[in-house]
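Sequence only, no structure available. Ideas?
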Amino acid sequence: MPRAVVYAWLAVGVASVSAVAIFIRLADTNPITFAAYRMLMAAAIVVVPTLFRARGELFGLTRPDLLLLSVSGLLLATHFAVWTASLSLTSVASSVLLVTMSPIFVAAGSLIFLRERVRRMTIAAVAMSLVGGVILAFGDLDGTDRRLLGDGLALSGAVAVGAHLLIGRKARRTVGNLPYITVVYITAAVALLAGALISGAPMLGLPAETYFWIFITALVPQAVGHSLLNWSLAHVSATNVALAVRAEPIVATLVAIPVLGETPSWMVIPGGALILLGVYLALKGEVTGAADA
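Reply:
I predicted one. C-alpha cells follow.
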C-alpha cells in the first residue's frame, strides 16, 4: 500500500483520538463508568462488520492468538481506566501530554521484544517529542498532590498503551485488523464492566447528555480512531504510530480553550512545534529506512 495512503489514514486516526479528553470532561461522570460504556459501545460497533467481512478469520484464531489479543485487551482496559481517572485530577494539557509519552516505552520494547531496529532518526524524534512535551506542560504543573496523582495515573496509562501497541504490532503480523480489534475491544469491555460492577460505579440512571458523549467517544475516538491506529500497525512500526499520537496534546490543548475554558501557557507554541517536528522526523526516518531496505 502507498505510504501516502497509510499516513493519511494514520492522520485521521490521530485526529479522531485527539478529541477524547474533551468528550470525557463533557460527559462528567465516574471514570470507570465512562471507560466501561465506551468500550462496550465500541465493541458493539465493530462486531457487526467483523461478522460480515471477517467471520472466518475471527473464528479461525488459534489459542495463542486469542491469548495474545486478550492480554492486549486487558492492557487497553488498564490504559482507559487510569487515564480517564487522571482527567478528573489534572488538566487536559498535562494528562494528554503524559499519556502520549508511550513512544519512549514502545521504542525500548520494540528493540528488546520485537527485535526491531530503532533508527537514529527515530531516537532523535523520540527525544525531540519528549522535550516538546515537557515544554508544553511545564507551565501547567503546580506540584499539588491532586495534580501529581493525576499526572502519575496518566503516565501509567502511557506505559499500558505502549505495551498494548507492542503486542498489537506483533499480533497484526498474522491477524487481520477486524478480528484483532474485535477480540481486543470485547476483552477490554468485559474487564472494565467487571471493574465498574465491583467498584459500585453507577451504570444506570445517568443524564442523557452523559450517554451522548460516551456514545460519541465510542464512535469517533474509539471505533474510528483506535481502529485506524491498530490498522496502521501492519504498515508502520509501533514506535512511529506512538510518535504520531504525540500530536494529540496539541489538538486537545487547543480545543480545550473554547470548549472547557482551559487556557494553556504560551509554552504550547514551542512545545507543540517540537512535538510535530519529532513526528515528522520519525515518519521521514521510516520512509528512508524502507527505501534502504
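The chain is about 80% helix and 0% strand.
Hope that gets you unstuck.
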